[in-house]
């Protein structure tokens, strides 16, 4: 007999047929959430936590999560213009030059996007010494330092630059501020690829700060010559505290022009503020290494709403949904919209779903492709079992 509830219903996600396992237990393997009940009491003494969840416990969790829900979608969400452009650059490079096309680092921080492009012939590398001399090489959306560009030239690589134009503007501002003699304070997160590239523009005059403590420790040669810039994916409220502290310490500090601030990060954060106000739970779709996605989770949590980062519907824990009937859903700027629809479909398997949208802005930004790729076409490919991450 397949696992069912007392009313004869089978929990969504539990296939009707299964391998026979120990009585009353579910196997640990991912996706293997089925067993045939072959006897044995739910409270058998030999059953231990290490043996994995029982059928009874899984059904109990499913029952607790099963409910009608209101799903509120954030807008804008998912790909921004810079991410769209970067992905299209790799697609067009593959169409023009054929595989392999090498990409330094992940083109954007999303494992689904990277896996899709890799399946189509993109080869992702950590450093340029992994690229054969003379090969076609794409720089990621996060930008690179002048040292990386020089290394590419030494290897005679055919470079196509997918750096987000807003990141390029930050690089230009670093050079401008440093060129006039300022100490440039970069507000960002150590180790992030965008930060590493930006610091490399003027390493002798640029210092990274991550928090208020870093501001307090700053030692600059001339307090009247200080400028600041921000990593484009920072949360606005998070950076505001640091900017205020800089202004307190250095009253003459100057910052970027307002149009240098990343519109996409700002819009997605504003939308999450609205979700956090309306929802019991906020689900942010994005990969763990996506800075802008992580910031959305942190922002919702700072506003007092439970928030979870997921790469897709399969990562939703039933326990999160127990007692939560209004779920906010958004996606980081590097996460495909297709993952949003999958999450809604998953929630609908647990009960009726009504959906609405809270929109804080309409995005019309469109960045030009590099001139060497303009006019090229991405050929249509037949549908496969693993469809491309459409934008």
Automatic annotation (TrEMBL):
Q: Which UniProt keywords apply?
A: 4Fe-4S, Iron, Iron-sulfur, Isoprene biosynthesis, Metal-binding, Oxidoreductase
Q: Where does dimethylallyl diphosphate bind?
A: 109, 142, 192, 290-292, 334
Query: Where does the chain bind isopentenyl diphosphate?
Result: 109, 142, 192, 290-292, 334
Pathway assigned in UniProt: Isoprenoid biosynthesis; isopentenyl diphosphate biosynthesis via DXP pathway; isopentenyl diphosphate from 1-deoxy-D-xylulose 5-phosphate: step 6/6; Isoprenoid biosynthesis; dimethylallyl diphosphate biosynthesis; dimethylallyl diphosphate from (2E)-4-hydroxy-3-methylbutenyl diphosphate: step 1/1
Q: Which domain of life is it from?
A: Bacteria
The kind of enzyme this is, by top-level EC class, is oxidoreductase
Question: Which Pfam family, any one, appears in the UniProt record?
Answer: LYTB
| Listed InterPro entries | LytB/IspH
Q: Which GO terms describe its molecular function?
A: 4 iron, 4 sulfur cluster binding; 4-hydroxy-3-methylbut-2-enyl diphosphate reductase activity; metal ion binding
What residues make up the catalytic site?
A: 194
Report the catalytic activity: dimethylallyl diphosphate + 2 oxidized [2Fe-2S]-[ferredoxin] + H2O = (2E)-4-hydroxy-3-methylbut-2-enyl diphosphate + 2 reduced [2Fe-2S]-[ferredoxin] + 2 H(+); isopentenyl diphosphate + 2 oxidized [2Fe-2S]-[ferredoxin] + H2O = (2E)-4-hydroxy-3-methylbut-2-enyl diphosphate + 2 reduced [2Fe-2S]-[ferredoxin] + 2 H(+)
Q: GO biological process annotations for this chain's record?
A: dimethylallyl diphosphate biosynthetic process; isopentenyl diphosphate biosynthetic process, methylerythritol 4-phosphate pathway; terpenoid biosynthetic process
The family classification in the record reads: Belongs to the IspH family.
State the protein's name.
4-hydroxy-3-methylbut-2-enyl diphosphate reductase
Q: Which organism is it from?
A: Streptomyces broussonetiae
């Amino acid at each position: 007999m397949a696992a069912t509830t007392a009313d004869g219903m089978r929990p969504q996600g539990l296939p009707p047929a299964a391998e026979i396992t120990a009585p009353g237990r579910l196997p640990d393997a991912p996706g293997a959430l089925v067993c045939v009940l072959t006897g044995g009491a739910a409270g058998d003494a030999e059953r231990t936590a290490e043996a994995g969840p029982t059928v009874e416990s899984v059904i109990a969790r499913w029952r607790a999560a099963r409910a009608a829900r209101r799903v509120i979608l954030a807008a804008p969400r998912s790909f921004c213009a810079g991410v769209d452009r970067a992905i299209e650059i790799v697609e067009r490079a593959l169409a023009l030059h054929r595989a392999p096309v090498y990409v330094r680092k992940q083109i954007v921080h999303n494992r689904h996007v990277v896996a899709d492009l890799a399946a189509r012939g993109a080869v992702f590398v950590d450093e340029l010494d992994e690229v054969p001399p003379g090969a076609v090489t794409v720089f990621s959306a996060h930008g690179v330092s002048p040292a990386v560009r020089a290394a590419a030239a030494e290897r005679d690589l055919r470079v196509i630059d997918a750096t987000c134009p807003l990141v390029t503007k930050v690089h230009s501002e670093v050079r401008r501020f440093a060129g006039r003699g300022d100490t440039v304070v970069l507000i960002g997160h150590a180790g992030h690829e965008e930060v590493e590239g930006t610091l490399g523009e003027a390493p002798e005059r640029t210092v990274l700060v991550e928090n208020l403590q870093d501001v307090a420790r700053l030692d600059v040669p001339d307090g009247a010559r200080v400028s600041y810039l921000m990593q484009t994916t920072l949360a606005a409220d998070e950076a505001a505290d640091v900017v205020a502290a800089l202004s307190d310490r250095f009253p003459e500090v100057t910052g970027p022009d307002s149009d240098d601030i990343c519109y996409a990060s700002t819009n997605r954060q504003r939308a999450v503020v609205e979700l956090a106000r309306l929802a019991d739970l906020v689900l942010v779709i994005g990969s763990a290494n996506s800075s802008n996605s992580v910031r959305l989770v942190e922002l919702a949590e700072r506003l007092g709403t439970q928030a979870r980062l997921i790469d897709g519907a399969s990562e939703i824990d039933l326990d999160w949904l127990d007692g939560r009937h209004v779920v906010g859903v958004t996606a980081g700027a590097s996460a495909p919209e297709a993952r949003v629809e999958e999450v809604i479909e998953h929630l609908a398997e647990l009960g009726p779903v009504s959906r609405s949208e809270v929109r804080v802005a309409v995005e019309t930004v469109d960045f030009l492709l590099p001139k060497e790729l303009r006019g090229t076409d991405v050929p249509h490919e037949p549908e496969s079992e693993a469809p491309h991450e459409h934008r």
